[in-house]
Design a protein that fits this description.
Distance between the termini: 58 Å
Helix content: under 10%
Number of strands: 54
Shape: globular
Largest sheet: 9 strands, antiparallel
CATH architecture of the largest domain: Sandwich
Number of domains: 5
Number of helices: 8
CATH superfamily of the largest domain: BT2081, beta-jelly-roll domain
CATH class of the largest domain: Mainly Beta
CATH topology of the largest domain: Jelly Rolls
């Protein structure tokens, strides 16, 4: 390894100059001193040649000897640089650190601390050296991987989070030092089969650069090693670079598999076959079930069987995910799960798991209310096909009236679905609910829906976000009014997104950015566009901003103007759609496209996006293959929103990386497509409403939000009209109940 490739750098030099106050505060000089902080960045490996900090967001904390925080600043450049900080005389531990806590692309975590003494009436100097504390991880795919697989990605996960290295990803990720899990996902180019592998790296060291190199094991011509694991060769030199060659086994590249081998799973409850998503809704009274089995039929052999369990299990000491085939007997015994394999023929076998004891002994209700358990079985055969069986259990105590704990699917920001149970002898059941801190005398009373088994259900609206509520069931039993136990729940929040009104813009050089100067410089912006790529050749083509602020055609203050354009000289260049999106522009990829990220961390559950738009479509004059429109067609604008469990690494030169609403990480999606001139309702604008339609993943909490708007729907295929213009203003997220949001899953 070349030594100049070593990545970690002792990074920062922090100068503390402690001095007395000016003469005006002479009386206080005997008790206080002042500190002026200067931070420098060391760009070299062994020297101390510092340069001014320009882009790191660093916090500075002054801790007293007792550990209390005397002063804290979350942004050195904004609040500390060049400022005089007055502190009482004494000893302090000064801590400087980065703010990011999760894995980051190309952004390491810096940390340094040192004890300093502030002496009243004197000048004291001290220096703090801050170093990178992360582990750096890069991923490389060899040409052989490209030869055999049409799509591939590696997901590297640590305790603090995960990053997805998709096909063509060149950035490095920085992780806190910990065990790292690597999941490799492949799609065979010849037959479309999907393969998945997992490896755990336990001995991860800080300040090292781990290069994960994926290669294909050359065909041996011998026996197929379909049952083998991926192998790892580690080349660790005396530098800080560690190259790990991860060899993909031969069977993943086979080209003669005619069909996808059979892999099927069903659940059996009391002898009957149930669907994977069956909710086992039972009352605890002796045994919950007589028999509960999971039957797996496989034509390719069972490779792995993973259990994913909910918090109810985790709280009792069960890990969130474990490999049942490799788990220790103690864990299997604790869950009371047994299994056996029955060979039907040479090409087919059945593997049966018996969950009866687990359900009857391990799953317990709360004392006076129901308790929910979620269990997923992730099953992989030897060709790494994957299927999942999702089981939900609601266990109830043997009481005549019950209020049931609400799951995430039943708790929203301004509405909720109350659930309970009423035995046959109970008459006229009612739900009573109100704020937890209010007297029950002020609670509201509602009549629920009821089925033949006595299960109760009621949608309630008009709730306040991030608020504690309580509810119970009341009914008449033997002539007297009786109540269930009280169940508490907290509504979701309504987190906002900065600059949804498109009022903030910043133009440091040529490109306009849809963010404030502060957010742009501190790398905390939410919105971006393709302007940076459009200005790559600005010295030749002039300044080009397909996306820009608009101050005349507006609803209020400013709007966003998205005007599609051709960026280039003569016939050399690319069509550039006017666009704006939640995410980040990464880099231009030659003349073939650009790399960008769609999505930003977000945990809210909105039901609708509204706003105003005005669109003038042109006749398409630039078109490339793969788009849904051609030259001569009328262009279309596109606005869409999605809630997901990841951000999307997009490379517009590789169409397999483009966002798809069918991606398994998408929880909810909504869009507007328009190919006609629109507006003239309000100041030339037309109001729109996009329903966020939740899918089968509604039980999963979102972690990211994606919002994208384009003046040319197929701009990612470099197709559209240079005459198309889209104006946007005053976007807003809504969190009220919206029946259309749940129509695709049959309602809540």
């Amino acid at each position: 390894m070349k030594r100049n490739q070593i990545y970690w750098i002792p990074l920062l030099l922090l100068f503390l100059i402690c001095g007395c106050d000016d003469e005006q505060n002479e009386q206080n000089q005997s008790q206080t001193g002042s500190i002026v902080l200067g931070v420098e960045k060391d760009e070299t490996l062994y020297t101390k040649a510092g340069v001014a900090v320009t882009n790191e967001v660093l916090s500075v904390t002054f801790l007293t000897e007792s550990g209390d925080t005397a002063k804290y600043y979350n942004n050195y450049k904004q609040s500390v640089a060049g400022q005089r900080i007055v502190l009482p005389a004494g000893k302090y531990n000064v801590v400087v650190s980065s703010l990011n806590k999760e894995p980051q692309w190309d952004t390491p975590f810096y940390y340094g601390e040192k004890e300093v003494t502030v002496i009243a009436g004197q000048t004291t100097t001290a220096a703090i050296e801050c170093s990178i504390t992360n582990t750096k991880v890069s991923v490389k795919f060899t040409n052989a991987v490209e030869q055999y697989f049409s799509d591939y990605e590696a997901v590297v996960t640590g305790k603090s989070g995960a990053l997805t290295y998709q096909k063509g990803e060149t950035r490095a990720g920085f992780y806190f030092t910990e065990k790292l899990s690597v999941d490799l996902n492949l799609v065979n180019k010849n037959n479309g089969l999907k393969f998945q592998f997992n490896k755990l790296f336990e001995d991860i060291q800080p300040r090292y650069h781990y290069i994960l190199k994926f290669d294909v094991q050359p065909p041996s011509g011998g026996e197929n090693n379909a049952g083998g694991d991926i192998s790892i060769t580690i080349n660790k030199t005396d530098s800080t670079e560690v190259e790990c060659t991860i060899t993909i086994p031969e069977y993943a590249q086979l080209i003669d598999i005619p069909n996808v081998p059979l892999l099927d799973v069903i659940t059996q409850i009391n002898g009957g076959n149930e669907t994977n998503d069956k909710v086992l809704d039972v009352r605890k009274n002796n045994d919950i079930v007589d028999q509960h089995k999971v039957v797996i039929t496989t034509q390719a052999g069972l490779r792995n069987l993973y259990f994913k369990v909910s918090d109810a299990f985790i709280n009792d000491g069960i890990p969130v995910m474990f490999d049942w085939l490799k788990a220790e007997n103690a864990l299997k015994t604790k869950l009371s799960i047994s299994g056996q394999e029955d060979k039907i023929s040479e090409s087919k076998s059945v593997y049966t798991l018996d969950l009866t004891e687990m359900v009857n002994q391990y799953l317990q209700p709360n004392e006076s209310s129901g308790r929910s358990y979620n269990l997923s079985l992730v099953i992989l055969d030897k060709y790494h096909q994957e299927t999942t069986a999702d089981l939900s259990y609601t266990i109830k105590p043997n009481l005549p009236l019950l209020a049931t704990e609400l799951s995430d699917q039943e708790k929203w920001a301004t509405f909720a679905v109350l659930k309970g149970f009423c035995s046959p002898e109970a008459k006229n059941p009612l739900f009573k609910y109100g704020k937890t801190n209010e007297s029950e005398e002020n609670w509201q009373t509602l009549s629920p829906q009821s089925d033949q088994e006595g299960n109760l259900k009621k949608l309630i609206t008009g709730l306040e976000p991030s608020t504690d509520y309580s509810f119970k069931v009341e009914a008449t039993i033997d002539g007297s009014l009786q109540s269930s136990g009280v169940v508490n729940f907290t509504t979701e929040g309504t987190p906002t997104i900065p600059n949804l009104n498109f009022d903030d813009w910043y133009q440091p050089k040529n490109a306009w950015y849809p963010s404030s100067e502060n957010d742009h410089n501190n790398q905390t912006k939410w919105w971006d566009s393709g302007n940076e790529g459009a200005n790559t050749m600005s010295s030749l083509t002039g300044v080009r901003n397909p996306t820009s602020p608009e101050e005349t055609i507006i609803i209020k203050n400013k709007a966003a103007k998205l005007a599609s354009d051709f960026v280039g000289l003569g016939s050399i260049g690319k069509f550039a759609a006017g666009n704006i999106y939640v995410g980040k522009y990464i880099e231009t990829v030659g003349t073939s496209g650009a790399k960008l990220i769609f999505g930003h961390e977000y945990v809210g559950k909105p039901t609708k996006l509204t706003g105003y738009y005005q669109y003038t479509p042109g006749i398409i004059d630039y078109a490339e293959s793969g788009a849904g429109l051609s030259k001569g067609d009328i262009d279309q604008c596109h606005i869409y929103i999605a809630l997901t469990t990841k951000a999307f690494n997009i490379n517009t030169s590789d169409k397999s990386t483009l966002f798809s609403p069918d991606d398994e990480s998408v929880i909810a999606y909504g869009e507007l497509i328009d190919g006609q001139r629109s507006g003239n309702e309000t100041n030339g604008f037309q109001k729109f409403e996009i329903n966020l339609e939740y899918n089968k993943n509604v039980t999963t909490k979102p972690t990211h939000i994606v919002i994208v708007a384009s003046a040319s729907r197929y701009g990612d295929y470099f197709t559209g009209s240079t005459s198309s213009v889209l104006y946007l203003d005053e976007f807003e997220l809504h969190f009220d109940y919206n029946a259309s949001s749940f129509s695709g899953i049959g309602g809540l």
